[in-house]
Write a structure and sequence with these properties.
The protein contains nine helices and ten strands. By secondary structure, the chain is an alpha/beta fold. The radius of gyration is 18 Å and the shape is globular. The chain starts with 8 loop residues before the first helix and ends with a helix.
């Protein structure tokens, strides 16, 4: 794999290929006798410029799917493509370059460095990638998430919602082709969560039912959540059970997502 192609994700995703593809992916933990199959033959594609929510009960394989799709974990079987490139057999060095240039991550726990300012936290991915951060670029991305007046604030001086916005800005600063989010609103109150969801929506193409905007960023988001209200903000919701994809909803309402989850709980009980 030519790792240099990962330096220009915008050009790579100009092709018609999906942003992320998984073909027959399985992930097994443990040895014989105690082995656990967290993913079982999953095949799915995530279109460029779309927002997909991944749902399912605890232990269904949601986070494992996210980690395998992002190259954080290696698959036991199957293949994974990001931006048209097969990463299944990539070396550790190639995967590191991928994670620093093509994909971004947002987690429930924020993972900010407490001793650094918001500006310094956002600049960190560029430094790790060997680039010299441009102050103007870092400040522009913080302004884009509504934190132009919080550049010199440290995490302890910011609210939970503001810390998550810093985390999103940090993920955005390298202009990743794909943003992976694991329960990005799980630690936030309702108002802060709504602000983060609105920000994520602005990063991707609008839902087909809405009037398109010329300024849409067109990024791809793959998000794990347990909250029907959060999932309903996405373009589609896919459901996992026992490591397998079992259902899908396109442009769902909160009620539709909640009803589908409730039906599953009744079937399991």
């Amino acid at each position: 794999m030519d790792t240099q192609t990962f330096l220009t994700p915008e050009r790579t995703l100009a092709a018609s290929a999906p942003a992320v593809e998984l073909h027959g992916v399985s992930r097994v933990y443990g040895a014989r006798g105690t082995a656990v199959r967290a993913l079982d033959g999953v095949s799915i594609s995530f279109p460029a410029g779309s927002w997909t929510a991944v749902m399912g009960p605890s232990g269904s394989g949601k986070s494992t799917l996210l980690h395998c799709a992002a190259g954080l974990e290696r698959v036991t079987e199957g293949r994974v493509w990001i931006a048209g490139h097969d990463i299944t057999g990539a070396s550790d060095a190639e995967l590191t370059r991928l994670r620093r240039t093509v994909v971004g991550f947002v987690f429930q726990s924020f993972n900010l460095i407490g001793s650094l300012t918001a500006e310094q936290n956002v600049a960190m991915p560029l430094r790790l990638a060997g680039a010299r951060p441009r102050r103007r670029e870092v400040r522009e991305v913080l302004a884009s998430v509504g934190l132009a007046d919080r550049l010199r604030h440290r995490p302890r001086e910011l609210s939970g919602g503001q810390q998550q916005r810093v985390a999103i800005a940090r993920a955005m600063v390298t202009r990743p082709a794909v943003l992976f989010a694991d329960e990005p609103t799980g630690a936030l109150d309702t108002r802060s969560a709504r602000g983060v969801l609105d920000l994520l929506r602005s990063m991707v193409s609008p839902r087909p039912a809405r009037q398109p905007h010329q300024d849409s960023a067109g990024q791809t988001i793959v998000m794990v959540t347990h909250d029907p209200a959060v999932a309903a903000c996405a373009d589609r919701v896919v459901f996992l059970s026992d490591g397998r994809l079992v259902d899908r909803l396109d442009r769902p309402s909160v009620g539709e997502v909640a009803a589908r989850l409730a039906r599953w709980e009744e079937e399991v009980a």
